Amino acid sequence: MYGKAFAPEYQGELKSALGVNSSYEEVLATAGALRRTAATPLEEARASLAVAEASRRLGRVAEAGGAWRASYRSARRAGEPGAMAWALWSGGTLARQCGTLPLARRLLAHASDLAAGSGDRIARGYCLAGLAETGRIQGDYEAVAGLHEELLAEARAHGEARHIVWALSGIAQMHRNTGELDKALEMFEESLRIAADADDARGRAWSLRGVADILSDRGHPGPALTLLSEAEAICRRMDLASALAYNHKMRGNVLYRAARYADARRMYARALAEFRAIDEPRGAVLSRLGLVKSRHFLDRPRALTLRDLGSLEHEVARIGLLHAGKMVSAFRSQLSTAPEVSCASPS
Fold first, then answer.
1. Which residues touch 326 (CB under 8 Å, ≥6 apart)?
2. Residues 6+ away with beta carbon under 8 Å from 263
3. CA atoms within 13 A on the CB side of 155
4. Is 300 within 8 Å of 277 (Cβ atoms)?
5. In this structure, how many other beta carbons lie within 10 angstroms of the beta carbon of residue 273?
6. Are 80 and 44 in contact (CB under 8 A)?
7. What does the alpha-carbon distance between residue 174 and residue 156 come to, in Å, rounded to a whole number?
């Protein structure tokens, strides 16, 4: 069994003041006030960690970078390797969000070692999860599938609902991307049930997005858009900037699959602007690909589409996004065998 979701990144006094569903503006205000009045380096480290995580999720990259580094310095002054691990976990997560995957792996690996040495099991689990997620978003499923399963089993054993939801969603995404839609839907739906029972609103928003993706892929755009609207309301309530942008990108996917290319183009453009505002290149690449595909079916000349795909290929190679690279290559192959299209939809 599992209990209510909790947020282990809120520590010390913040543990009782904040919860897993606290809005990130609230987290910033509460943690910022505590950081200004902290009496010890450990209190400073804990407050700065919360500031870093709230800033990251709000898309304020510079503030997040300064805060996790401040947290690490304070934790080091306090002689607390567990707190140092949490700070590096935050830094590694930020690096992954910003598309700097080698740095993310280095920071998360060091954090995992520190957490193991400190005996902080939860910190070590989060650091390993960060490494697993870095490999997953890159598309290196063979390398990280086993680690996802291991972390899922550990989370189930300890009844940690939030971590169970993360692992289930991650494994489901890998199944979805390799064409195992039945298994993916089963796991997304389980993560959705657990998130709801554990009162994990953020996990629920991500799980809703996953279920919507499968429904859309199976030709049910209406129910998919309804689920995305429900998830969007959660994202807005909690100030989830990155999750909201991914929600809009997925809405673009749903509209594209339904051949509503003009609507899809507008939604992808919106998501692209949101990803650029929070400096998240992976989301920006995926939104750009959606834009290229939508514009192609709105009478964009093939030569311009091919030019745009070349630019995308360069970007996914720079970041190291294997799965996204396969998606770009697949569309290029589709273009090479398809006749020029002409649509009545306005461009």
1. 139
2. 255
3. 26
4. no
5. 13
6. no
7. 20
Q: Give the pair of three-digit tokens for residue 5.
A: 């979701």
Cα(77)–Cα(328) distance, integer angstroms? 47
How far apart, in Å, are the Cα atoms of 63 and each of 57, 66, 88, 218, 327? 11, 5, 15, 41, 33
C-alpha–C-alpha distance, residues 241 and 31, integer Å: 19
CA dihedral in degrees (173, 174, 175, 177; nearest 10)?
80
Residues 6+ apart with CB under 8 A from 249: 267, 268, 271, 275, 283, 286, 287, 290
Give the pLDDT confidence of 271-285 residue by residue, as tens digits: 999 999 999 999 999
According to DSSP, residue 341 is labeled P
Q: What's the angle, vertex CA 94, arms to CA 196 and CA 141, rounded to 5?
A: 70
For CA atoms 284, 285, 288, 293, give the dihedral sign.
negative
- pLDDT > 70 in the chain, percent: 97
What string of DSSP letters covers 97-112? HTT-HHHHHHHHHHHH
Among candidate residues 234, 273, 236, 229, the one with its CA nearest the CA of residue 251: 229
* Distance between CA atoms of residues 41 and 75, nearest Å: 6
The pair of structure tokens assigned to 215 is 């429904």
Inform me whether the pLDDT recorded for 83 exceeds 60: yes
What is the Cα–Cα distance from 214 to 18, expressed in whole angstroms?
Answer: 34
Smallest Cα–Cα separation from 71: which of 12, 117, 124, 17?
A: 12
Residue reference for tokens 């280095």: 106
> Which residues neighbour 68 within 8 Å (Cβ) at sequence distance 6 or greater?
48, 49, 52, 87, 88, 90, 91, 94
Report the pLDDT averaged over residues 123-136.
94
Rounded Cα–Cα distance for residues 141 and 322 (Å): 10
Neighbours of 121 (CB within 10 A): 12
- Rounded to an integer, what distance in angstroms lies between the CA atom of residue 94 and that of residue 30? 21
pLDDT at 344: 39
Percentage with pLDDT > 90 across the chain: 90
Token digits for 246?
Answer: 């991914």
Q: Which two tokens stand for residue 117?
A: 């040495």
